[in-house]
Amino acid sequence: MKNRKIFIVCLLIVTCIICFCGVKLFYLNKYNTEEFDDAYANFLELYDGREYYAIENKILKDDYLSLLNLKLDNRFGEYILSVDSSDDNYIKYELFDENDKVISMISLLVMDSRYKSFDENDLSAENFVRENNLNNEVEFMDYVFKNKNENISIFSSVKDIKNNYIVKRTLAALGSDKTNKLIILTGKYDGYVVVIENNYSVYIEKDAKMYALSFVRAIDSEKELKNILNTIVIE
């Protein structure tokens, strides 16, 4: 009788272990990050080599270019407003050559912060940001970078498994192997710049919105970009 009780107890323990492992393996498979791992690793490398630039406050008397509720130094007098700029949250100016081919572009998209975006599993990093008392996207990046060595395994909680997927999926979008540099913005505005050759994508976070300003073959150098950043006014 005693041996039978021991057998039953052992069987229950084994069953619980199998169920535990089965549940964890299910979630580890469902929230597998393999497709994001390389791009996420690229992001970590970019962030490790990040530069900083403090935006100054340079007020112009006139000659601003208005992009929705953002304006900046107008160095783009020959650019033409695109017919695609029909959205209240998006505007684009283009420069054409003599064959009416677009050779450069400047655009602005007003959107939610990257960590608020959802994927195919309807997950976002917004709760992760809130639970860790992070105030903006740069703080989110910094927190993830500082905790990059935390490993996910079968012993991790389901919540941590989900968060690992969410974080890697969110930041992998910045880890293109074509990206040359990541510049963190401070000073008048908080945000960051992604540099890909002579293309500059500027992300400024203000009033719970992200202003995604893109310069595609529109400026010649980081020095020119920084001069333009100093003139930005968001109204």
Brief summary of the model shown:
By secondary structure, the chain is an alpha+beta fold. The protein has helices at residues 2-30, 34-48, 126-131, 137-146, 158-172, 222-229, and strands at 51-55, 64-67, 70-73, 80-81, 90-96, 102-111, 181-187, 190-196, 199-206, 209-216, 233-234.
The helix-and-strand class reads alpha+beta
Largest sheet: 8 strands, mixed
Please report which band the strand proportion falls in: under 5%, 5-15%, 15-25%, 25-35%, 35-45% or over 45%. Answer: 25-35%
Total beta strands = 11
Order of helices and strands: HHEEEEEEHHHEEEEHE
Question: Which percent range fits the helix content?
Answer: 25-40%
Task: Specify the number of helices.
Answer: 6
What is the molecular shape? elongated
Rg to the nearest angstrom? 24 Å
Terminal-residue CA separation? 81 Å
Low-confidence segments, given as residue ranges, are: none
